[in-house]
């Protein structure tokens, strides 16, 4: 059974709009200003129609050159005001779109950092990144362009309608009959567009994940000359994106075409009816001109609104995925009122009746009946065959998961009484694959204590036997180590990771010893670095080296999630067959 990591959910247009308006709240002043600019803009375009009417009737038809000259200036002034308002509206709305999408990205990223590592095992990084970039970009367009266009179109529509009514009530009634005919396709085709939009974004995410994975493992791809297969598999994913997009585009195109066709037909019919009115002297030529100006404006507004509705449907699809991410909860539950740790933590650990199974495989017990008391400052070596549960034990100690039974105590405090932050601040971890970030050596070491001074960093590097080689790098400590530390040797990476842990200065160490053999010199340096690190600290070390088990206070032998023996190297070599086998076959001498 696989764990439902992301809860699929349907987002209605209302939920989406409520969410977006919530995001706009902090920028109330800008929103109000944008709306004001929008109203001024829309009103000036409407006023332009009145200007045109005066130009035609009083200037043109009445053959009055003075009036004509005068009105041209008025019309130009109105156009200038309209353009100014358009600038303010456009600038503010696009700004708000960018702002909202930036804020949403921050929220999603901040939330992602709280999710359990299990979530990232079940979800592909590339997919998460796609949600981040592609989905928030869709929202950005909706806020920046869509909402502004819809609002302007609504005001224009209402204004145009009022002026049409004033100009000619009868012709207006003809126009109004046409409106429901335009709205019908929006309702039916809009829903289709939304469904396909989500599908489309899902396919984009899938493609992103594939690119991420293959480029990440480029050496393996090239070493196995797998490029052609990758091209084919990628192209399949791209075509899936195209296919989903085509369906969406088809329905949107149909929507737009239908609306245009219906509106233009309606306008033509109304113009024809209006022209007959002019001929029978029911209305003036200027009135008909103004009326048609408004009718075209109203028709254009309806078209705009329908297009925006398409955009919003698309955004609803995209935000479904973003909201799913935001609503994914971390696996571990935090206490209602958390305890704090004393200033001085000794680092004694107590595991009492611990039992554990991963949520993705609840029936497979990874640890069971696990009891272990570790005194402060003790050095424990964990050994056992692959799959014995050693790494899982670390995951429980860091509370990436909760035990299914039993409890874990630090200095007598149940770890479930602490926030995960307080708990994790008691541990420093050095994993088997030394983790190096694509930044300077300095920042890499400072990772565990971002406020450390340069002297602190240098001291930690010295203790970790890293100072010497760091000083020889082109920019010393400021040298960029490249993505995943590609510019360093294995032993150098290990020593940087150890320097980081030394600087972090946490009471308990979790070490997963590297299995790869180093040359004698590097080996010696790493050993010295580890000795510095473990000094005075409670240490749990997944051991792969003979020197480590020999120097441990106690060796805990694990097999199939249980402790099968505890003792010193000598004792276990004599008394425990699992250990003897392990030591003979797997310890690096
Ligand atoms: N994320 C996970 N989801 C489900 N099962 C897991 C997960 N991680 C590990 N397991 C299972 O838990 C068991 C213990 O694995 P664990 O990695 O703790 O062993 P280990 O002793 O550290 O092994 P190794 O020395 O090979 O790293 C294994 O059977 C493994 O398949």
UniProtKB/TrEMBL annotation:
This protein's UniProt keywords: ATP-binding, Membrane, Nucleotide-binding, Transmembrane, Transmembrane helix
Q: Which residues form the ABC transporter domain?
A: 349-585
Location comes to: Cell membrane
Question: How is this protein positioned relative to the membrane?
Answer: Multi-pass membrane protein
Question: What Pfam families does the database record attribute to this sequence?
Answer: ABC_membrane, ABC_tran
Transmembrane regions:
31-52, 72-96, 149-167, 173-190, 253-275, 281-305
Residue ranges annotated for the ABC transmembrane type-1 domain, each copy included = 32-314
Q: What GO molecular function annotations does the UniProt record carry, in alphabetical order?
A: ATP binding
Name the chain's protein.
Answer: ABC transporter ATP-binding protein/permease
Which CDD domains is this protein grouped with?
Answer: ABC_6TM_bac_exporter_ABCB8_10_like (cd18575)
Q: Does the keyword Manganese apply?
A: no
Q: For this UniProt entry, what is the primary localization, expressed as one broad class?
A: membrane
User: InterPro entries from the entry?
Assistant: AAA+_ATPase, ABC1_TM_dom, ABC1_TM_sf, ABC_MsbA_ATP-bd, ABC_transporter-like_ATP-bd, ABC_transporter-like_CS, P-loop_NTPase, Type_1_exporter
